[in-house]
Design a protein that fits this description.
Length: about 400
Amino acid sequence: MLYYRYRPINELSLKELRYNELYFSSTKENNDPYDGNVFLSYEFDLDKWQRFFNVVFTKIGLPTEIIKNIVEKLSQQMIDDNLKTYNDIFNYDYTNAILSIDSKLGMLFAINLTEAIKKFIFIYRPSDMYTVSFSKEKDSMLMWSHYASKHKGFCLVFRSIDDCLYQDKKNKKTAIGRSTPNGIAKHSSFGIGDKFHFKDVIYCKKCSTIDASRFMPEGISDFKINSEEERIAFVEENYNKSFEKHICWEYEKESRLVLEQPTPWLFGNRFEYTQDERLFYYNPTQLVGLICGAWMDNDIKKRIKEIISYNREQMWLNIKEDAVFDFVLFQAKISDEKRGIQIIPELIYSSTQTYQQSDKTFNDKFERWEKGEAILFNDKGGAKSIYTITYHKFHLIVCNS
């Protein structure tokens, strides 16, 4: 399947094209303030609040006689104030609430308890995700206007393999590590797979919430998973919530790749990636086309052609154990007949030459490209066979080493 990534015209986007870069954005970097921000609710009754405070205060070593009084009265205060959302609970003024229970405890003591409470809430908050956005449409007027410099930019065309985009083998990240003195080890790392799965965004008028209390220790939440099937269903349910967006964004027809954070409590803190750690390099063979915007400047188009030619040359020189597709350069045009965009193939970069529209074999080559034909190379860089990709799988059509 083909996925489209609209890009504006600037040096950063051209650098991404030149070096096959893939940058995973944080929720704060997205243009939709709700994108990736899952709505968290905490379904706590009085018993759960008491169990919550007992666990937190026991961890910091408070005497039992002090814990009991604070736990009972503070838990009731939570119920009376009807706290439900993450922000309500995290930003609550625990310091003054504790001092109102027993002013003899002192300000410093109350502040230390508040910090312990908030740290516990913070660590057991569900992990965040970083994302890269793609569209399933190449001719959306709104997408070209909003994300491709008002038709002056370009759109990258990716072909998925097993509905995934793979990392570049030469620049692959396998793990990201941290010093974790509060975790299960002094130093821990989080493994990164060799591919990222495409997943469609779910559009809805009203986004649902996640009961975040279920992510807390079982002794607090009383939530039990009794089988592997239940565990998978729980993970998928909460994972899918991260792909919900308001229906007003439906025109984007978005699919996205996701880079997940590790489970915070295993590392003793939230494991946030730096911008450099979120920069990956995709397998260049899966970039199979580029659409030039209808109003792209000619000098920019020449520069893009230079980048494509250089990248293709380097790819053919170094290819091993991979499937390689032809690359098509398209030109977008504003229609003279209706309000829409025409996407016209202009050039096809093959293994041996570049085909133009005037070439007799151009249409045949383009039809093969549309079907997903690829040349499969062996581990020594020799052409092994020709494959075509239909949806997610390879299907052999010719074999001539």
